[in-house]
Automatic annotation (TrEMBL):
Pfam families in UniProt: Na_Ca_ex
Keyword Transmembrane helix assigned: yes
Subcellular localization(s) per the UniProt record: Membrane
Protein's UniProt name: Ionic transporter y4hA
Organism, as annotated: Streptomyces cinereoruber
Membrane-protein topology: Multi-pass membrane protein
Alphabetically ordered keywords of this record: Membrane, Transmembrane, Transmembrane helix
PANTHER family: SODIUM-POTASSIUM/PROTON ANTIPORTER CHAA, SODIUM-POTASSIUM_PROTON ANTIPORTER CHAA
Keyword Transmembrane belongs to the record: yes
TM ranges: 12-29, 35-54, 66-90, 102-123, 135-155, 167-186, 222-243, 255-276, 288-311, 317-338, 345-363
Length: 365
């Protein structure tokens, strides 16, 4: 990258989050006309692209797997805040908001992000290579968390409907936090090497020989990353009424709104994972995908359990038969993908097909 191009990149990735945050502050709490919604959408896109850039700067500075963990946790923490805010605000349909958002995040990460990353990596090198030990362990936690928080409420009998009783919700929250803490400890300390990109002779990454950024640049990128993520989630919330109105006028299920918002919120991780796959760093892509799924469940459920103290109305967490089938299929296919430690276009296509089925059935259940 030439010095002029690098300077231009630094300039727009600095001002992009700032402008998006200013637009968020100016538009918050107002009725927005159509053209303003369009401008907010452009600001959201700029914030997404800037978030990816700053996440890559931080990842280069601290190394893997800490870099992918920073982006996954940052996005999830802000996403949790958005869910709690919307549920506290009340309104029709909020009882299933946490469930719909978490399930959408699992399907997007485990099928959408994994599928497109495998596709890009296999197109570049014919075979995408990654650590089966690290990815397999992360996938096991995703499946366990999803089953404990989204499947079991459908079958428990202590409370009518697909809901946990108070004691069951506390147990699920504590177990989710415990599993998330164990995952972070294993990923960053005890078995850190399981989550590092697999080196391949003759396939060196573009950034392997680049000098890491200094402390000042890394801290600046961290601040701009957090600002960009706040702008992404906040602006997504601003345009969600327009999306909701469009969904309602089209006669589509209300769960579609949660799917669309989850897609927008997870855009930074998706783009970062695809760029990592293009650089032959497939393990980084899987770290982002499975790490985001784990953080989404492991942080959301405890937060919702705490917020339920003052939330009115039921908290529906249990999935219906259609989504249970998609979750089971995702778990089986993901295990078959991860175990060999190698994947081709075939596996990428299968995951993308499941993701397409999820999106289609969300619009037409």
């Amino acid at each position: 990258m030439s010095s002029s191009t690098a300077a231009m990149t630094r300039q727009w990735t600095t001002w992009g989050p700032v402008v998006a945050a200013i637009a968020l502050g100016a538009a918050w709490g107002r009725d927005l006309p159509g053209f303003v919604v369009g401008l907010i959408a452009l600001c959201l896109l700029a914030a997404v692209l800037a978030a990816v850039h700053h996440a890559e700067v931080i990842a280069h500075r601290v190394g893997e797997p800490f870099g992918s963990l920073v982006l996954a946790v940052a996005v999830t923490v802000i996403e949790v805040g958005l869910i709690v805010t919307l549920m506290v605000g009340g309104g029709e349909g909020t009882s299933t908001y946490a469930r719909d958002t978490v399930f959408a995040a699992v399907m997007i990460t485990c099928n959408g992000i994994v599928g497109i990353s495998l596709l890009v990596g296999a197109l570049r090198n014919r075979v995408a290579v990654f650590n089966a030990e690290g990815s397999g362990g992360a996938l096991a936690i995703v499946c366990t968390l999803a089953t404990m928080t989204l499947v079991l409420p459908t079958f428990t009998t202590s409370h009518p409907g697909p809901e946990f009783s108070g004691v069951q919700l506390i147990f699920a929250a504590v177990a989710s936090l415990f599993l998330y803490a164990v995952f972070v400890g294993v990923q960053t300390v005890r078995h850190r090497d399981y989550f590092l990109p697999v080196p391949r002779p003759g396939h060196e990454s573009e950034d392997e020989h680049a000098a890491p950024p200094g402390d000042r640049e890394a801290w600046t990128s961290l601040g701009l990353l957090l600002l960009a993520l706040v702008a992404v989630v906040g602006n997504a919330k601003l345009i969600s009424p327009t999306i909701e109105d469009g969904v309602e006028s089209a006669g589509l299920p209300k769960a579609v709104v949660g799917v669309v918002i989850a897609l927008m919120v997870l855009l930074p991780e998706t783009l970062a994972a695809v760029r990592a796959a293009r650089r032959d760093r497939m393990q980084t892509s899987l770290n982002l995908a499975y790490g985001s799924a784990i953080a989404s469940i492991g942080l959301t459920i405890p937060s919702i359990a705490l917020a339920s103290i003052w939330l009115s109305g039921p908290l529906v967490l249990g999935l219906g038969p259609l989504h249970l089938a998609l979750l089971a299929l995702t778990g089986v296919v993901s295990a078959l993908t991860v175990v060999p430690g190698r994947a081709t276009l075939l596996q990428g296509g299968v995951h993308l097909s499941i993701f397409a089925a999820f999106v289609f059935l969300s619009f037409s259940p």
